[in-house]
Specification:
The chain is of the alpha+beta class and about 190 residues long. The chain has seven helices and six strands, in the order ααααααββββββα. Strand 1 (about 105-110) and strand 2 (about 115-120) form a beta hairpin. Helix 1 (about 5-15) crosses helix 4 (about 50-65) and helix 2 (about 20-25) crosses helix 4 (about 50-65).
Amino acid sequence: MTLKAYLDNIYTQTGKTPEDFRVLAEKKGLLGPGVKTGQIVDWLKEEYGLGRGHAMAIVMLIRSVDQPKTTTGEKVATFFTGGRARWQAPYEALLAKVKAFGPDVSVSPTDTYISLLRKGKKFAILAFTADRMDLGIKLKSRKATARFAEAGSWNAMVTHRARVTDPGQLDAEIYDWLEQAYAAAQPVKTTAAG
């Protein structure tokens, strides 16, 4: 579900916009230093009946208002500091090949990984340590293999995980899996009923 869809659902349910929630949270003292995310989520659940996902969307928005804005490039750069710097060139090479799949490929960095998206729909993720690049693939149609194990508890957003310990392991098999995941992430086309 997109952020816009979350916000539309929240507005339909509560009649409130993220700005309305920000003002209300500020009045309740929930935006001050030391306030935990769980406190805001509990308030949104109790007073407005929001589920955890919807409440987290509001928390993200009301807390980001006063934060300095960073670009996607700046966020991505944070993944390649210290010992992880060795993965920047392989990441850039991988991204160039993935962008060749189609013009609708984009990236969206989080605090812990970089999502690969097709028209906003996640099809893979990349996480980095000094020793390896973890590649998560969202591809329900493929069975796990020795190289592409089930993602399990590593990350519930993907179905498979490959651990790359050497940039030379970014080979045709990796790109085949990525391209299949990209193809599977194609948005469903709907037709208007006549």
